[in-house]
Each structure stands twice: as C-alpha cells, then as structure tokens.
Amino acid sequence: MLQITDLSLSFGTDTLFKDGNIVFNPGNCYGIIGANGAGKTTLLRILSGEIEPSGGTVSRSPNERISVLKQDHNAYNEYSVIDTIIMGNPRLYEIQKEKDALYAKEDFSEEDGIKAGELESEYAEMGGYEADAEAGKLLMGLGLSDSLLYSQMGDLSEKEKVKILLAQALFGNPDIILLDEPTNGIDISSVKWLEDFLMDFVGTVIVVSHDRHFLNTVCTHIIDIDYGVIKLYTGNYEFWYDSSQLMQRLIKNQNKKKEEKIKELQAFIARFSANKSKARQATSRKKLLEKITLEEMPASSRRYPYVGFEMDREVGKDILTVENLSKKVNGEYLINNLSLRMNKGDKIAIVGEHDTAATMLFKILMGEEEPDEGTFKWGVSTSQSYYPTDNTAYFQDGDLTILDWLKQYSRDTTETYLRSFLGRMLFTQDDVFKPVKVLSGGEKVRCMLSRMMMFGSNVLVLDQPTNHLDLEAIEALNNGLIEFPGNIIFSCHDHEFVQTLANRIIELRPDGFVDKVSSYDDYLQLS
Q1: CA Rg value for the chain
Q2: pTM of full prediction above 0.85
Q3: How far is the C-alpha of 328 from the C-alpha of 199, rounded, in Å?
Q4: Which residues make beta-bridge pairs with 323?
Q5: Rounded Cα gap, residues 53 and 182, in angstroms
Q6: I want to staple 77 with a disulfide (CB 3.0 to 4.6 A). Which of 154, 206, 220, 517 is the partner?
C-alpha cells in the first residue's frame, strides 16, 4: 500500500500543490490528470522518491517494490536488452551480477561457495531463472521479437527503445508501477496489449496519460490536480469528465435560482421598507436574504481552446483521386499500389504499423515528396490545409513573436484580426509577443492550428495533430473537427480521437492496403 499524507510541494513562493491525502490500494489503477504545469509528472517523481516534497510524507508497506517507466531513451545504450529489462528489478540484477562475479573467480573459496548458495536461493525465489523467458514474453507482447534480447540498446531504433523501457517497468511483478505517458510512441496493438496487462495486474498502477481511451480502459480512479488541490475520484476519465461537467451545471442552475430569489427579495424590500403595514414583512425578507449564499464555482486552472474550421466554399464532386500510388524507402514499401477516391463528407483515418507510411502519403499529397509510381489529383474546387507531424520548418525564425509569426500567413495583417485567432488558442494579452523560439511543443501546435483556421480550406490534412497537446486541447480539437463540414484525411494515435472522428479507415501495409467504410472500433474487431 502506498500513501501520501498532507503532501505539499513549493518552489520559492509558488506552491504547486498542497495538503494531498490519498491511499493507493493494490488492484487499482489511478490516472493523474491536470492542466499543463499542474504537477502531474512531478507527483509521479515524488512517489518514486526522485523528488523530496516540501511537506508531508510518502509511505509504503515494507519490502514493496516500485517500478518506474524511464524517460531517457539513451540511458542504457551500453547495455544489452536483456540486462536493461532485468534492471527493472534492481535487486535481481544485482544478485545476477554478484553471482557471475563469484563464479568467474579463479580462486573460488569455500566461503565463496556458501555465498553463492545464498545468492542462488534468493535468485530462484525472485524468479531469476525465468527472467529471460519473462523478458521475451514482454517484448513479444509489445510487438518486438525476443531475438532482440541479446542486442545492444545503442543499436536499436528509438521506437524499439521506448518499448524496451516499458518492458523494464513491467518486469518482475513489481508491487507498484508508475507510468508517465506509456502509450507515447507505441503502436495500436501494443497499446491494446498494455491495456490488457494493466487490467490483469494485481498491484497498484499510477499513470499520467493524455490518451483518453487508455485512461477510460485501465483506470479505476482519477486523481485531478487543479489549482494546487489534489482530489481523488472513483471511476475512469469519462466518468470524471461527465461528473465534473454535471456538477458545474448543477451549481450554475442552483446559483441562477438563488440569484432570481435574491432579486425578488431585494425588490420587495426596496418597495415596502417605507410602508409601515409591510415593514414587518420587509424585515423578515431582509433576514431571509442575508441567509442566501451563492455556491462558489470550483476554481479550475483548465483552459479549453476553441477550435473551429470554416470553409470558404463547398467542395464539388471531385475531391481527391489516388491511383496505384507506390513509394519505397530503403528498398521497402511504405505505400504499395494505393488507390482511393475521397467522397464528400469523408473523414478518413490513415492507420498502419509504421507512422512513416502515413507521413509519406501526406507529404506526397501536399507536394513535398514524389511517388515512385502512380498518380493523385485534387479536385479543382478543393483547398487544403496541412498539419505536418514535424513543424520545425515553420519556426525557423525563432526571434519572431507569435503575432508576427501568424502575420506571415494572413491576408489581413491587422492586430485585431490576428488576435482573434490567437485568442481562440489561449494566446491572450502579452502572450502574443513571446518569441516563438521559447514555445513549448503544445504551444507550437496551437500556433499551427491558428494558422490553419484562418485559411478557410475545405479539406484538412492532419498528421498526428494531438501530439504535445494536453487533454483539454485534444478535447477541443476533437470536437472542432467533428463539427467541421468539409473533408479530413488524418493520422492519430489517440484511439478516442479516431473513433469519434473517422467514418472510413485506410490501413497502409507493405503488401498493399485495406479500405473500409467503418468506425475505428468496428474496424479493429474485424481486422
């Protein structure tokens, strides 16, 4: 059992959170949510012991082991994959190395033999002899071959390292698992496997994630950090969201009724206070008025941007036609003989094992790359806005202010007009004068969305638009695209985003493609 008591953390005069009291019980999964900067990752680091709190305590039962998903993907480059995974259980790894050192001694003594026997016993008790098999099973669950076990971490790709560090966090049956954005950079089938693993896990899981579907699937509780207050709610993310919205509406309705009653009483008092025959009633109502209190709306640091795309004109009959399109990279097909015709109203999700395939398709459609074979044609009535997964090229001049940056793309360069788009994306007052070189990943995404909204395009091409966004911005973008009356072709790892937006799924495979008019969930069940 893990417990925080009166937990507080301050940096100088700024308090990140205070007076946190939560008992984390085995068998439960706790999702930590909050606006960017609320302290979600910091709370995980306090729970792991990496950071000391300013006040309060973190306690856990004796001999309980905490496992943490590491964020530095290059920290284990000098180690083998099998050693990296086993390091998820530091004591087991320590015993293994100590045993190896003893057996390597040329002058192996009787005392060494006794020590080796003790280590062997502890090693067996901890499941050391099944460690390689367990590590291989974790790798295969995450979509990697167990043949990688004896490879060097430094020789692997970034995506392989991400999965191996996740395997490390899950290895060896820990009592408590702390996961910071565990679905980032892993494919759909691996996310599904991880969901199943965590739902079957008998220990305690505490996770930070921007993936709403993942939080809905695995979480039994939600920890909300808002304006320095840590609150625990029973249920998954969707339950928390619906409940919080309902509570806000109830309080607003109650306040509205109270305000109407207050006005009624004030009017009566004002009208009859000077009337002797009504003076007693006026006094009575004055006392009643003094007792009426308005519920204070729960303060929230959450800020929801407004995302709304408007079309300058309707699309015609011909929107996008792709015929026998192919593209190889390093001798392997990313796109193989793809043909499609986009219909009016289509919102097409491009999925597949490799993100680079969707990115390559979008680059070809936007004229940034040439296909090896085949053709594509946009309809004459179409206009496209493109959101690339890598927006670095758009921010080359880092000294530009946000306002000047957006001015480059606008026909109307008046400050009032530009601020209207930036304000929707939560850039207000002096925010617009920040140089773009200091912007976070999420702020750059919001700049790109501001740019796209002013174009009035009737077709949107979006490559992983939810990357770097917080839950509030993802919700706003999701809703804005659902309401968009034009056509969309996009890729995204956010399951909920794809399920609620797409009416057609195209999966790119090395040997071809699959094209289904279907919701995402139905497609996954059929595939």
Answers
A1: 29
A2: no
A3: 39
A4: 375
A5: 24
A6: 154
Is 304 part of a structural domain of the chain? no
**Distance from C-alpha of 155 to C-alpha of 38, rounded to nearest angstrom:** 36
* CA distance linking residue 248 with residue 166, whole number of Å: 38
Provide CB contacts within 8 A for 452, sequence distance 6+: 309, 385, 386, 387, 460
CA 446 – CA 252 distance, rounded (Å): 30
Q: Each residue of 146-168: pLDDT tens digit?
A: 999 999 999 999 889 999 999 99
pLDDT of residue 207 exceeding 90: yes
Last residue of one domain, picked from the residues 240, 272, 299: 240
Instruction: pLDDT band for 274, please (50, 70, 90 cuts).
Output: low
Residues 6+ apart with CB under 8 A from 298: 226, 247, 248, 251
Give me the pLDDT at residue 276, please: 61
The pLDDT, as a whole number, for residue 298 is 53
Q: How many domains does the chain have?
A: 3
* Calpha distance 166→123 (Å, rounded): 23
Confidence of residue 272 (pLDDT cuts 50, 70, 90): low
Contact, 17 vs 230, CB < 8 A?
A: yes
What own/partner pairs with CB < 8 Å and gap ≥ 24 does 427-432 have?
427/402, 431/402, 432/401, 432/402, 432/403
Domain presence at residue 298:
no
- The percent of residues in the chain predicted with pLDDT above 90, rounded, is 65
Place of tokens 């090229």: 393
Shared domain for 252 and 329, answered yes or no, is no
Instruction: Please state, in angstroms and rounded to a whole number, the distance separating the CA atoms of residues 105 and 91.
Output: 22
Tally the residues of the chain.
527
Please check whether residue 386 lies inside any domain of the structure: yes
pLDDT band at 435 (very low <50, low <70, confident <90, very high): very high
**How far is residue 107's CA from residue 128's CA, in Å, rounded to a whole number?**
26
227-to-30, 51, 428, 436, 473 alpha-carbon distances in Å:
19, 20, 20, 27, 18
Distance from C-alpha of 418 to C-alpha of 451, rounded to nearest angstrom? 10
Q: Is residue 470 located within the same domain as residue 360?
A: yes
Print the domain residue range for 519. 320-526
CATH number of the domain enclosing 387: 3.40.50.300
Q: Does residue 308 form part of some domain? A: no
